[in-house]
Amino acid sequence: MRLLIKNGQIITHEQSYFADVLCEDGVITQINDHIPDENVTEVIDAQGMLIMPGGIDPHTHMQLPFMGTVAIDDFESGTKAALAGGTTMIIDFVIPNPQQNLLEAYHQWRGWAEKATCDYSFHVAITWWDDSVSRDMQTLVEKHGVNSFKHFMAYKNAIMATDDMMIASFSRCIELGAIPTVHAENGELVYHLQQSLLERNITGPEAHPLSRPPIVESEAANRAISIADTLGSPLYLVHVSASQTLDAIRYATENGQRVFGECLAAHLTIDDSVYQDKNWLHAAAHVMSPPFRPKNHQQALWNGLKSGALQTTATDHCAFCAEQKSMGKNDFTNIPNGVSSVEERLMVLWNNGVNTGQLTMNEFVAVTSTNAAKIFNIYPRKGAIQINADADLVIWDPKATKVLSVINQHSKVDFNIYEGMTMTGIPAYTIAAGEVAYQRGEVLVKVGKGKYINRPPYASYYQTIEQSHQRKVAKAVKRDQ
Amino acid sequence: MRLLIKNGQIITHEQSYFADVLCEDGVITQINDHIPDENVTEVIDAQGMLIMPGGIDPHTHMQLPFMGTVAIDDFESGTKAALAGGTTMIIDFVIPNPQQNLLEAYHQWRGWAEKATCDYSFHVAITWWDDSVSRDMQTLVEKHGVNSFKHFMAYKNAIMATDDMMIASFSRCIELGAIPTVHAENGELVYHLQQSLLERNITGPEAHPLSRPPIVESEAANRAISIADTLGSPLYLVHVSASQTLDAIRYATENGQRVFGECLAAHLTIDDSVYQDKNWLHAAAHVMSPPFRPKNHQQALWNGLKSGALQTTATDHCAFCAEQKSMGKNDFTNIPNGVSSVEERLMVLWNNGVNTGQLTMNEFVAVTSTNAAKIFNIYPRKGAIQINADADLVIWDPKATKVLSVINQHSKVDFNIYEGMTMTGIPAYTIAAGEVAYQRGEVLVKVGKGKYINRPPYASYYQTIEQSHQRKVAKAVKRDQ
Amino acid sequence: MRLLIKNGQIITHEQSYFADVLCEDGVITQINDHIPDENVTEVIDAQGMLIMPGGIDPHTHMQLPFMGTVAIDDFESGTKAALAGGTTMIIDFVIPNPQQNLLEAYHQWRGWAEKATCDYSFHVAITWWDDSVSRDMQTLVEKHGVNSFKHFMAYKNAIMATDDMMIASFSRCIELGAIPTVHAENGELVYHLQQSLLERNITGPEAHPLSRPPIVESEAANRAISIADTLGSPLYLVHVSASQTLDAIRYATENGQRVFGECLAAHLTIDDSVYQDKNWLHAAAHVMSPPFRPKNHQQALWNGLKSGALQTTATDHCAFCAEQKSMGKNDFTNIPNGVSSVEERLMVLWNNGVNTGQLTMNEFVAVTSTNAAKIFNIYPRKGAIQINADADLVIWDPKATKVLSVINQHSKVDFNIYEGMTMTGIPAYTIAAGEVAYQRGEVLVKVGKGKYINRPPYASYYQTIEQSHQRKVAKAVKRDQ
Amino acid sequence: MRLLIKNGQIITHEQSYFADVLCEDGVITQINDHIPDENVTEVIDAQGMLIMPGGIDPHTHMQLPFMGTVAIDDFESGTKAALAGGTTMIIDFVIPNPQQNLLEAYHQWRGWAEKATCDYSFHVAITWWDDSVSRDMQTLVEKHGVNSFKHFMAYKNAIMATDDMMIASFSRCIELGAIPTVHAENGELVYHLQQSLLERNITGPEAHPLSRPPIVESEAANRAISIADTLGSPLYLVHVSASQTLDAIRYATENGQRVFGECLAAHLTIDDSVYQDKNWLHAAAHVMSPPFRPKNHQQALWNGLKSGALQTTATDHCAFCAEQKSMGKNDFTNIPNGVSSVEERLMVLWNNGVNTGQLTMNEFVAVTSTNAAKIFNIYPRKGAIQINADADLVIWDPKATKVLSVINQHSKVDFNIYEGMTMTGIPAYTIAAGEVAYQRGEVLVKVGKGKYINRPPYASYYQTIEQSHQRKVAKAVKRDQ
Hints:
Four copies of one chain form a homotetramer.
Chain A: E1 2-6, E2 9-11, E3 16-18, E4 20-24, E5 27-32, E6 42-45, E7 50-53, E8 55-57, E9 65-66, E10 69-70, H1 75-84, E11 87-94, H2 102-112, E12 119-125, H3 131-144, E13 148-152, H4 163-176, E14 179-183, H5 187-199, H6 207-210, H7 214-231, E15 235-237, H8 243-254, E16 259-264, H9 265-269, H10 280-285, H11 296-307, E17 312-314, H12 322-325, H13 345-354, H14 361-375, E18 393-403, E19 422-432, E20 435-439, E21 442-443, H15 462-472
Parallel strand pairs in A: 1-6, 2-7, 8-11, 11-12, 12-13, 13-14, 14-15, 15-16, 16-17
Antiparallel strand pairs in A: 1-4, 2-3, 4-5, 7-18, 9-10, 18-19, 19-20, 20-21
């Protein structure tokens, strides 16, 4: 298979230039001013279009068993939606039940993911702790290409990681060259606020954001950052939604700590007024954690991306349909948390970020693809347009428009949080593994075409972590006897 | 008893002027340019001296049972040391054992304190939680003059308060008009670092500060602040020692929260080099929590007092002698935590604060006396020079000097952390309840002369707390049926 | 004249208690539980009401010659409006023309002010510099009770103070124990933006805020702060309107500098949407500098008052009627800058600050009266309820309401920026110099009853300023010859 | 000329991998696992060594006429020193005298630079303003490859740029797609402090840092940032030396502004104790502006590089020998400002940055080369190891050591500020334009081999600047007639 893309402008995280690109057997083999179309299987004319690395969504939950149900997008529909939006790789999550063997859970998820149509990888969650967990973390890193472990600081009485668990797990991550990630919300405060709201008979979705105010997020973020700093560990914060959390990240990086932050396309564009909707289902459809925030947080997040305090954008794609959402009809704490967004992410970022002048095109590539590849140590195999890089590309039509809607989406869910918004700048083609996987409205790829991507430990930022940690190590004072 | 103080300059937290002061039956009854010395029992000529409200030390631990021993200064020796230093009231701590009835503990401490030679009051610690604790808090507030409850975020496996306990207790404080206070150190991190140091065979006092770095303090402070903010509670942080904690306080107050901070005379003047001392006992004598910090934190604390980010100064007076300290000879985690300072506080603040130009004389009074009286709602009975205020005064000789030393101190302990330092500006007389309690080196007061001071709830800052909390309260959305 | 106020609750900046107050010959002579009404000229029953120190407005411009016209409220109408709002003292400004002799200007203003009905004092502006200015500053401080000098960083080509002038003047202030104050806006940027807007034919009042964005204010504030810090001078910033300026103040105070900030009642409650009004005159009536800001700045200012980053509230009362405003009909830069507010300040602060739970009653007194008295060194003569303090009081009815309107105001101007707002909490009586000056709607005082108040140099904060400045002084290195 | 580098590890700003590199006719033509050494002119065996982009020093002053003398390193000796240290390109400064025609000055400098042995380019300083300056800026951008203009905020009565000049020049930069850069020090404060020190007879080099304290720098930085923000311009701050300036940069970037910061190798490693040296000449040799700072600023600068608040490192190389320094023997303000550092920069950054764990190797490349290339818009021609990039490389021996000394340096000056420091990690070879320009101690290149590098306008960050600026543009309100 030899695919030639002609006449386009290549946009990477740091360069913009015109060149043709040849993809052979899944990788990029030539980038040149003019590549002749001899012996080529297929030619795409990208005149007037931009060729960018395919999106990497570092935060999805396909067919997640959660809150008594299962997320409706499986690895097939979910990855098709991804490709339809220009995303060519997802990093999903293995979430063992407390006391469940990590490897068992890992293999369970690997099995579910065989249907995937784009490449994928897994973060593994640490939801409990004993020596076997510590051992299995090593196996996952050394034998299964896992270099990141997730910690939920929320969800008391379920999968919540307490401080002692995080201390143990972060310490283990350092030994293995892996990076800890956290969902930062103070689970005790959330639980208290939930009970307090229910006691006052406030049971609808409008109670959801009140049970998880920004300070509940920034407190937990600051705590995780402090634990990481004390131990000498890097840290990755998922779905930063509040300006206060950005303040915590900046405070840490100003003091020399290596902390990375992710934000969601949805948090960048939707505010908490949705929870006041008169229609219960409309409001419930937006229930996710962290919740949507007051409007002023959005500019803070854009500034975070511009200034480098946030590096990545993701979706936390976790789709539940109306019937599932209705499980919480009488009690908002039973509404399954999650929204669909994996298809829309790049369009939303471009339309609201690049078109408005918030981000350069290069920054767009960085925050939708390259930075995730670097942090999770698969760059330049992913996230790059270079010779020998995987031929995962999106060919972007900056002038074409599309109205986002439940009608034309690829997710199975029956709701679209961006319903009716017109996007200027959309994917014309998505190239995965050197083949056209999506073309102007149609997903063309075979089920199971996606590959599992091993992510090796010891990413670039890790080389000095240990050294600087060494400098903090104590020595005994030699005292007179 | 009519005591007349003549020819002195009165210094309050906001005024400086010359006047005579007449004390009758324990209270101030006249403040005038010239008060005739007729019918007066005793006259003090304060020519060239300053008349200031007696110091209030809001943080002492007399005869505290702690870490397998009992602090060596009891309420007699401890309060004598206080008076010798110009301090006329202490607020000590009732610390129930986990599961111990709060009222039982309270009465135990009241019994111990009957020997006190100056006035005193008690914070009560919340070291466990159930409905009886909640009920007893009400009894303490309504019947026993307690308006503040303490939470130790450190001391895992002992008296550590977890987040859920703090949420419950802070909520109860709001209902009662009391103020929660916290010892802010992340107990899980401290425990981990202690074990980690011991495993590496670092067992001396030099390990103590390494097991409690500044971030362990600022993390906990930020967490307590976040809990208080979420619930709508005021908060008082004891012994702030690190610049990072000040940053957390300022961040909160900038956002409209009411957070108060206390710092210790010792942290303002002594740095962590003491733990490197070749003499084990010298190093161990300085073991307290939070530990002494690198020198640069001191200026931050002074700036905190100047700018109002910190309101009070205290001592955490908790004296252990060499024999007691030696319990940790082979394991620093067994060294009883605490130092003696109640006598030296005012001198250290004056010498290092006023003489250097860091603080005005008025600010000195505010941070050694008046602010504590206001926060703990006993102003202007205490902390003021006004008609009808308690006649608790210190007559300060700004030119006299004294060398601080274990030799001339009033504490029973066998060590002085300020050994050999020369102070310029010392108390010439301490007046307690309208009588001379200390005079140029000699404590004159009878055992048991001190009174228990009731502290009523709903201090000034509380009047709006509730209102602003109300504004955060959720309402259910009215939805179409 | 003996005026007795009975049955009220006294509210000071730090205490709340019930007592009667007796005023004799202009000063307070008794404060007691029950004062018999024998030999009393007049008795006010303050049952259900609050007795507070009369307001001090540290920033007014009565009959100011400015921008080719003269502010319409003279010292008679302006001070009557003040008294009608519970304000018993104003500090106005002497603003010499460049090259005008300072003493000449001072006497000019003293002459104008003889009509004043409440007490007053003058800041003097430094609008140019030579040796005579330096000399006259000394005369003003030593002979005329001036302890503050104002510097306009805006108004290029008119009264703008450049950096070299501020350096010279601040240095002189230190020598004299006076405090420099600044109007912080970068005059060069304002001028550039004005020209740029006019060039683009944007000539209406909507251009006014665009020509003076928040950063223009915070830049100048930071510059003045930096100059003061370098020289070792205290600093007072007038009319802080932007959150960014608060950040600059906090940054300075965190580093130990003594910077005071004032904000205006109008900035706390009115936002920049007024400039979009379709009615030119309505928009123009709000033209003042700094301009009204986007709504989010208001909460920052309230938090500034709560946290002590701002100490005082003022009005910058400078009233121009429609005819005067119309001078800028074709060019917004010719609209005379200023609004009327001296009557409404206390009501606005109470209604929007105390009633909403932002401020305690004590804080209300602090920011409307006591803090100004302290900073400008007339406390406790002013700003206090103490024996021998001036009997300047406001008797506040916290339940009474009033609709603010041009119809019932005492200013001469034909506009009210608070038109139609209902205030809960209004002055029932204003007592000035021990006499009823205002009573439920009616100003009763005689023209010329107000006294000029001398303000001595070397306020409390000054005592250490010099010492800490000394510590920065260089010494020559002794080098080998 | 075909030069093959074999067996080395390539380190770029974002990747580390093993490959051979072939350079032909001045550019890189192959990067492969194994490149055969057929038809190759020269082979370098880089076994155990690192191949990195040659350093770019964006801030040098060769043979600068300054303070009555001329910097002793001309473009020949200066660029030889650069090559000896692994730097393959410098960006020097054209500094017209006030009133001197910009193009005339530009051509003067171009003439002087013909001797250069490595590539070079020029920033042009704006030292005065009229319409001709504005016109000449356009010519320089469009015809002479200049895309950056420098503004000195210090040096009153000489080349100081006032606010109105900066407003005019920054505005012009936006029109041309150029970037303004500033030397941030408040010239008025510096002048005042200098005079004040001289008046007190403090005339030695110890007075130099006292005349330029950190706040003098951060004030000016904040002012330039505010002007740039108001106008919508990007900004580059040269030689950031103080933590306060970093705070100003961070404050700006948090709010969405595009501000870049440079720091000097010398400020990262040398502190202000040098000015206390008993030897006048030793102290004077360190006189540069901004001066060396107290030690704590160094960690702040390292953290700035780590966190991305600072992007580039430079030297401000401006060498004056003892005789020249002696011009200020009796008056420190006459000591020519400047130190030599162009040879040592990379070694100092590696030894103190990479070896200590502060920076990764990739970050080292970013801050010594790639970031400067990106900001000044010559990437990936410079600062990259890519096909078709200029073959400017440094082959780094991370284990070799060298003692820095005046004895073995290539600068002509008679002093070395790093005298006696042992560096681990040094350049083994420097490759410029595909030829070995320096090899283990010896500079091999011919005089005049360096090329002038055109830098085009509209760097990446510029594309959105204009758009976001548009969003701030005012519109007239449509009013009723």
